[in-house]
Amino acid sequence: MYRTSFPKGFPEGFLWGGATAANQIEGAWNVDGKGLSTAEVVQKAANRRELTLDGVTQASIQTAVADTGDRLYPKRRGIDFYHHYKEDIALFAEMGFKVYRFSIAWSRIFPDGDEAEPNEAGLAFYDRVLDELEHYGIQPLITLSHYEMPLALTEKYNGWAGREVIADFNRFTEVLFKRYKGRVRYWLTFNEINSGTWGFHETGAVDQGLPEDQQLQIRYQALHHQFVASAIATKQLHEIDPKAKIGSMLARMQTYAKTPDPLDVRAAQLEDEKNLFFTDVQARGVYPEYMNRYFAEHEIKIDMADNDEQILAQNPVDFLSFSYYMTTVTSHADQGDSLGNLAIGGRNPYLKASDWGWQIDPVGLRISLNEMWDRYRKPLFVVENGLGAVDQLEADGHVHDNYRIDYLRAHIQQMKEAVKDGVDLMGYTMWGPIDLISFSTSEMSKRYGFIYVDQDDEGNGSLKRYKKDSFFWYKKVIASNGDDLD
């Protein structure tokens, strides 16, 4: 549609807030009937630069199950949101949150994943969380699966590699949709679904030690089962609660060519295609041709039921959400290095990096927003973006984190430019508004929050919450709908 006027800023009703995951904040891992999740058997990394997310084996799982503590498994303790949720939500409300993104732990509702009836104590906890959000007028944005499937499904079916898990997941989603009809307007299916190409943490499938071709077969088959389960969940929600919306969630990995060499440009295009394959399936409802070629060349055969393609085609998601932390540089001649957040690529000499080596590229967010809007023409939602840093709690209880303010300001400025470009952007939930256990390393030292939590990497501390300087800055940003970024 031809226009002569353009937005000057974020639209009215823009959803400002923050995002967390159950396995990184809740704690209470063995309370009120909760079952063990896959996140709770991944040991913390010995070295923050050498991730061990998917070094899980059957033997390491058995070791973890036998260990009844949380010293080696910090996601079991989180930051005890389970008992601090009222205090934490009150702090989110003080900042002016319009939306809070969180996940519902599948193993709280179905401890083994495949029970016939849900665990009422688990549902009651989320009832209370929603009550508190409603008290402050904060919209919930709920992720259905955020790296925390019931471990029992790994033991029974090798996680999502088993087609049986589709029915188990959709029993879980149906219970939630019916229970929270009219109370939850926005849902997401699988967090960073594309990270399933890295294995266990997303798929729950153990494949360590297998040849690469077998790993690829298992991972893409598991992802196909997730695609089908996501489409069925979309159908369920539209039938149970037609006013609610459901979206996909991608770890966006914008890729640049290392040089103008056409081979480098093509290499970057291929990397982007492998990233956008997941939103292609979930938004368009079909497997794209370029991935069909990839499967053929790598001898990957996706085992589909007769009606799988029909289910995908008939139930695309309503909107697209994604995390954005960094960009990568690709060359046809080399594989690059591990850059963090599951990114592989070369380093960009024009960008600075965080303490964890994650390159900071605010303009890349605008590029991604424009490319995804042009590709899909569906509303977009930035549901993760933030800076992990080592914060210092001063003796007077203050945390001066201007570096975080600078990071977020630059990214919000680029989001505003994307809105002016014509992108339909629903909202922004930065990661994570309160310090939590790191997904990648399970450490506490990597802090993202506006709220400091007094806990160290070993779990020592009072768990007292402190407002950082960025807390007051973000409050001002929300109150001005993104106009006041100083």
From TrEMBL:
Single biological process term from Gene Ontology: carbohydrate catabolic process
Domain of life: Bacteria
Any one annotated GO CC term: cytosol
InterPro entries according to UniProt: GH, GH_1_N_CS, Glyco_hydro_1, Glyco_hydro_1_AS
Cleavable signal peptide: none
MF terms in GO: beta-glucosidase activity
Keywords of the record: Glycosidase, Hydrolase
Active site: E384
Family recorded in the similarity comment: Belongs to the glycosyl hydrolase 1 family.
Name of this protein: Beta-glucosidase
Source organism (scientific name): Oenococcus kitaharae DSM 17330
